[in-house]
Specification:
By secondary structure, this protein is mainly alpha-helical. It contains 16 helices and 5 strands. The chain has 2 domains: 26-53 and 123-299, no CATH class; 317-413, no CATH class.
Length: 414
């Protein structure tokens, strides 16, 4: 009888080491600690990201809100500050509580509602964090069972794999090679020999490495190498961002993803832990949102930032051309974001978003038009002195962008 107990204990231990479900009490121990670490990590990473762009989550600011529907009126001061503070309180509770299913649910509902008031809040890092927490929250309401734990982890793995896959494909364009990557890595490239600075090899390696990581994480035999590549990729990106001082809100995201990849894949390097095909309702939703719909972004039928297109070069851009008279009518806080070196003078919408909110503008024409329409309200009788120019996504092979123009009258009557 004692011999059987020892053998059973060894079998359970071996099962846990292989990342495979055991039986009896061992089942819950296999997955709950992993979900707990993942939940704490995601909540902490999200809290850090929100802290670096807290003005994004209030209404009393100059940069206009872009609600999904015009009937959504801005949340007045000081309620907007209180609602932003509540996000941090809920995230702290998610980190600290041993059974945070209620805190998870309330946070997801509340943060989701606040996101409807401003589409700029749909930043890629928030989008990914949100749905990973949603996957964990869904199964938190079910009986603690290895199948439920495995399904939650599988949904999170699918989000990570899909993000790498589409992020790589989005960067396979000449604009990323010739503009986006040199602009991002210029401070690092200056340290390389002259012949290497103008080479496309480093830039071209980025999308292929991301796609390789996505494929490698799915296959057990190549998972260990894919984890190493993923960690190395985020380390390089983090160094580039820190040296350039670019987009500090995504610094915690890159740190968190290093740990997320290790928790989801690194601890199970040789086991068949991941099934890329959905088997449950949450996995089906994740597969749709992260696995399939991003393909529509190449036909402008799905948003770029919901398709892992951050720093891909494959996004729309916009500026607002202004006359000298129109510039003087803008609030003094906006004028530093206006290019006034020589004509044509223009308000850089992305620079304004970074300057005030510490995030890039959400790169969709509807958001650009909304921002321009709000700028027009400052001009009064000088409305003809402002014109919005939207530069559409570039041709992936030539980098050529087609433009659309709107004046204030057009924007008001659209």
């Amino acid at each position: 009888m004692r011999h059987q107990t020892v053998v059973s204990g060894l079998r359970g231990k071996n099962d846990r080491q292989r990342g495979q479900p055991g039986c009896g009490p061992t089942k819950q121990a296999d997955f709950d600690p992993t979900l707990k670490r993942l939940r704490i990590l995601i909540a902490a990473g999200l809290a850090c990201g929100l802290a670096l762009c807290w003005r994004l989550w209030i209404s009393s600011r100059l940069f206009p809100l872009s609600p999904v529907n015009g009937s959504l009126r801005p949340i007045p001061f000081p309620l907007d500050y209180l609602s932003a503070a509540l996000l941090f309180i809920l995230l702290a509770a998610i980190i600290a509580a041993p059974r945070p299913k209620w805190f998870l649910t309330v946070f997801l509902v509340f943060a989701g509602l606040l996101s409807l008031w401003d589409q700029l809040r749909w930043q890629p890092w928030f989008y990914q964090y949100f749905f990973m927490l949603a996957a964990i929250a869904f199964y938190a309401w079910w009986k603690p069972d290895p199948k439920n734990g495995a399904a939650a982890l599988n949904a999170c793995r699918l989000i990570v794999v899909s993000t790498y896959f589409w992020g790589g494909l989005q960067k396979l364009n000449v604009t990323f090679l010739r503009q986006t990557w040199p602009d991002m890595s210029g401070s690092i490239l200056r340290l390389l020999p002259v012949f290497a600075r103008s080479s496309d090899v480093f830039a071209l390696a980025v999308p292929f490495v991301e796609v390789a990581v996505a494929v490698g994480l799915v296959i057990a035999r190549t998972r260990r190498l894919a984890v190493i590549l993923a960690i190395g990729t985020h380390a390089v990106i983090l160094i580039v961002l820190i040296v350039s001082g670019e987009n500090t809100a995504v610094w915690p995201w890159n740190i968190a993803l290093i740990l997320v990849v290790w928790i989801l894949f690194g601890e199970y390097p040789e086991t068949a832990i991941f099934n890329p095909f959905p088997r449950t309702i949450p996995e089906t939703m994740v597969f749709l949102l992260f696995g399939l719909l991003p393909a529509l972004s190449f036909a402008d039928a799905w948003d770029s930032y919901l398709s892992a297109a951050l720093y891909s070069g494959n996004i729309d851009q916009a500026v607002i051309y202004l006359s000298p008279r129109a510039i003087q009518r803008l609030p003094s806080q906006i004028r530093p974001h206006v290019w006034q070196g020589r004509a044509p003078y223009f308000l850089d919408i992305n620079r304004w978003a970074f300057g005030e909110l510490n995030v890039p503008v959400y790169p969709e024409p509807r958001v650009f038009r909304n921002v321009a329409e709000n700028v027009c309200t400052y001009l009064r009788e000088d409305e003809s002195d402002a014109r919005l120019r939207i530069l559409m996504k570039p041709n992936p092979f030539t980098g050529i962008r087609h433009s659309e123009y709107y004046d204030c009258n057009h924007l008001r009557n659209q």
